[in-house]
């Protein structure tokens, strides 16, 4: 049995494209922190905790060494949202050539969805994509931030990207088994 999967590719081409989300209530004690020490175990935890119910599988086969090599690449950043000290989700950025930054992964751990954390985390992470050259002096200033999402992702993913100012630049449909 195969399913039809639609993938949307979205982009921003200027920092002014970003439409910020409202912050979660102060009582939620949400904070966003960069994981400054690359940790394969922590990144694997985030990947599986966020992606287990939305069919993220490509990195499940990565060895510790593969995680280590990826996380130590210049321009790879993981920003983690915490609610009252508990990891709630993350956004992973990858600086690419010619001032391009990809939002490689973004999402919340299931119990934290629907609590106004996702839009806030996406706003924060997108802003960090735009100012990435401030943290990586050898990088060109960001000219474009892009992301892709598909019909297997959460039901609000595409709308969240669009509300944050991302515009669709390509759509592809495929059949998966």
Q: Could you please describe the fold and organization of this structure?
A:
The protein is an alpha+beta fold and 177 residues long. 25% of the residues lie in helices and 34% in strands. It is built from 5 helices and 7 strands. The chain has a 7-stranded mixed sheet with strand order 2-3-4-5-6-1-7, with helices on both faces. Strand 3 and strand 4 form a beta hairpin. Helix 1 packs across helix 2. The longest helix has 13 residues. The chain is globular and about 50 Å long. The termini are close together. The relative contact order is 0.27. The mean pLDDT is 95.
Number of strands: 7
Count of helical regions: 5
Structural class: alpha+beta
Quick check: average pLDDT?
A: 95
How many whole angstroms does the radius of gyration measure?
Answer: 16 Å
Q: How far apart lie the N and C ends?
A: 6 Å
Judging from the principal axes of the Cα atoms, what is the shape? Answer: globular
Low-confidence stretches: none
Q: H/E order of the elements?
A: EEHHEEEHHEHE
Q: Strands of the largest sheet, in order across it?
A: 2-3-4-5-6-1-7
Instruction: Summarize the main sheet.
Output: 7 strands, mixed
Strand content: 25-35%
Helix content: 10-25%
